[in-house]
Structure prediction request, 298 residues.
Amino acid sequence: MKRPEIDPALGLDLVEERTLSKKDLSVSIVIPAHNEEATIAQVVSDAYAGLDVLGVSGDVAVSASGCTDRTADLATKAGAKVVEAPAGKGAAISAGLAATSGDVVCLIDGDLQYFGNPPLSALLVRPILDGIADAVVSDLYWRPLYPQLWLHGFFAPVAGALFPELIAKVGSTPWSGQRAALRHLWPTELPNDFMVDLQLLLHWNRHAMRLRPVLADDWTNPQRPKPELMAMELDVLLRHAVAEGRLTESKVPAVREWYELAHQAMAEYRPDSDDPQEFERTLLKRSLDELHRCLAAS
Prediction:
């Protein structure tokens, strides 16, 4: 049987010159912060430096989320607009969005110390102003192993199976809170908790024409592992996959069975004896094999 031919142009109009255009847009930098008095003044200063580098009009807003320290006072003294928000990252982002009006919104965590040049906000927003992206997520080199376990044991296998097109769009640190997008791509309703990061990825995957990762420089922030969030993230992924017809309800128990096995595999890591990179590679294959087995058996 002769295979049908595939048009290599895939319906795209071939061009001989640049068709994307740079955009003259204002920028709002929103900084969600919960008790970040040690770093907030520097983060605000770096945000203003980012606006200067970009040469755009804009504003910087700190969303003080359930703060009980001097975060709000120090942010005000550093020149930021401060908006009070309930506890919860999603609640902080929603409050920051409502308090700003820039054409582009950039998120920078209140506890992030970024050592690169230009400032991270400028690095993230530039591709949007240049017209080569509509939404971006920072691709940050990550040292601690826990998030890498999340990536190799959990997110890459299940998201790769249910949302394969998403993997290439979000880079190697899809959990990063450092991101930017055109304002119309920010949902009007967001979850109040840390599920907001994944919800944004899935929303942008569906609505942004060009969602792209942006390679970033060296950085640090406090390590606050949240292992309890994985099960909640699985619920979000399954709910979206079923709603979009990517997974049938009958297959959901099989994915949940896989999750328990993947979680167990991640828990087997021993820092005193396991090589991190080798463990990551083995974990990814093991998790993928288990997912395929569970789905095939269901």
In short: The mean pLDDT is 93. The first helix runs from residue 40 to 54. The first strand starts at residue 27 and ends at 33.
